[in-house]
Amino acid sequence: MKPLNVVMIGTGEYTTGFVGGAASASDKKVGVVGLTMFDLRRRGKVGRLGMVGVDGSKFPAIRSHLDRNISRVYNNLDTSFDSFPSDTERDADAYKKAIDKLKPGDAITIFTPDPTHLPIALYAVDRGVHVLVTKPAVQRLAEHQELLRRARKNKVFVFVEHHKRFDPVYADARARARTLGDFSYFYAYMAQPRYQLDTFRAWAGSQSDISYYLNSHHVDVCDSMVRPMGYRPVLVSASSAAGVATGTKGCVPGTEDVISLSVTWARRSNTDEQETVKNQQQNRAVGIFTASWTAPERAGVHTSQYFHYLASRGEIRVDQSRRGYDVVDDEGAAQTTWPNPFYMRYAPGDDGHFAGQTGYGYLSLERFVDACRSVNAGAVRPDELDSRLELPTLANTVATTAVLEAGRRSLDERREVAICVDAEGEWTLHGPTIRNRLASIALDATFVSHATSLLARPVVANERCGSWYVRPGETRRLSAYFKSTDGHERAWKFSLRRLNLHLVSVAEGNDGFVIVDSTRRGKRMPDALSTTIPIWCSVINQVLLPQNPLSETVFLPPHLPATIQSQIRSLVPTFVDSLLSLGLDLGSAVLSKPLRPFWIGNGSVLPVDEVEKRGAPIFELYRPVICCTASRYLAGEDDEKDYVQGAADDAENWALGLTPSIFWPNVNDLLAANEEDLPPLIKRLVSETELKSEKSRHQQQQQQQQPLRRLTPRLSVGALPLPPSPASRDTCYVALIPKPTPRDAWLKSPARIEVGLGRHKTGSRNLRLALPDVCAFVTGFLTASADGQVVVVCESGSDLSVGTALALSCRVFSDESESRPLTKPVVKARLAAIMTAFPEANPSRQTLQSVNSFLLDWRRDEPGRQTRVEVDQD
Q: Taking the model in full, what pTM does it have?
């Protein structure tokens, strides 16, 4: 067979070992591709060689490096090559000139940054040139399949350089796996030292990530082991760690140090390739793939790598980090090292020739050359090579690209990503993308607008999901908090924390209201609408209208089983007693008719659209609470794949900081954007909104117009910032600052304390330690000013400030004797009173836990004790 002419595209570490003007600090000091091709040329398998870069001025130094470290080390190893562009040129398209000089049947190798793989490979295959491309072949599944189609059309061979397939231990494990029964579990880890980021800084985090770079190895190994048994990946979720690459190594913001992929694998029990993940309960397995480029620099191992394979009748453990080959060198950077001659053996043989032909790094490239020569000789067709399991052809590495792209999407969009294969063998990624979610929200909001317009009643958004479906400015919009967890089966409760009593006057003054919420695929309506609100209506009816015979009726959706309805009704008297036990003043909560829920959904038959009928009474004997489910009900996983039922649910996990107040003013721009353009667009909109909010807060501070909510005659809460000077000498201010500060810096004056707690969960935890000092400060002020006012502010105006106000209400403004300990019922009653006065208050669970811990175990808390705050981690 004729020798194969090869052009090596890329001049970096893997091709030449030359990085930053010198030999690489890694285990590839003289490269892999160039050395292998020079030796294959010596052996007669390769003919003419070329090399392509962008900056031709580097070639003299590269030639000198290769001559010094290869030609002078090994006998008869010629390192000459044709270079593109010339030594005096710089040309990013030099690869085109090099490929144009090749003939059909010649070959190229591609070892360049990931985003450049596709255009180079397509340019070659369209001209009949065989291609070896480093892993990952491409970053997107659609690109992989397009390249595969073009390669088949042009009858060329495309090989993905997954050299771990040729590792003798991994290859043996692949063969043994087929004898061990059903696949169950795969765990893999691969890491390289931090100094690799000095080489990769130019593209790390901006053009690719550690998962594409290292997880690609073990994902491919796992796939090659289990694919012959009928398994393929069906679901991917990813998580990451960060801080080192962007810190000490100066990589771009967002560069991950570690990425872990959790992959569900399934084996089809039939030929229906559209079978859903939900129905694949049998023959499923899980794979965990972790990769890092921030391993210790003096670990003695360049690539730490191992995996554990578990099957129904056995298991395989492979540790290729330390192979029983230890080297101690007093002059080395690490006391003990574990080299890997199984990958590339650089030591010359006894005859002075290069002797590394058995290394799997070498074998990978040789197998490509052999396959291309066989295709050129007519001994085999490119598509026939797909059946050879050891060969990572483009066709049998599709699953790896699917998993890697799904992992990247999972990180970017904070969601699970499903992998599907249709009857024609086309692979696709599915799941609620950000664009799908936003488009679905906008579509469902159109239904909500139409329904509420016909019903002509105030619209209440059930936070947080419901607020996305109510377009601002179209109707009178209010908010409420009815939790679905309070309506979960056999966990029913009436929340004393979220009484939502402000809705009573809304219902009375408008003959009811419409409350909007949604739920995920598979449910007709959220539990908040089906059970939490009906329970609330019944309790409110019996407390406010105890003499009305209709108040005792508990209305529930007809789809609930009779046994469930009976159990809920039996609990209502207990819920009524719990509300009455708070002793709240309900004189302002006037209700002339009992509340009655009824339900409409996206698809319900609505009233006739006649203006004169809008706002007409729906019931003569009740005030209607119209529970509106915004989203359409989808029963099957494959129904309307681009539509997302309950798209707004759990927005904190997918919206990237986007909120309804940002979404709706920018809805047209967001829906017009491509999927890949959405994350940066959202980031910009969120940043602009935060900047505007900060300017607004600053203006309010200057004008001393920051609004406050009065909770009691002497206690108010609000949002930061504080006014620059106190409004009155009879007012003291407690500011809860989102940046942690030392305790000795808190007190600013006898009437002002600024407590640096941190944000989110960190701030809520630190509140527990700060409350003794806050209460002591307020007590001291009120001792000097008996009729003084107290103002508590925090970043949101509704979380930490409300929790602190609750603590002050119970401890400082308490009517109870100081000798009597507080009890949970007393704290609950005070919280209920605050929530009644300030319905929009939203103290987090962590905030209330800190307050309860302080109030109910307060005797061990004295000012100044245990007040070291945590560093903000949120």
A: 0.63
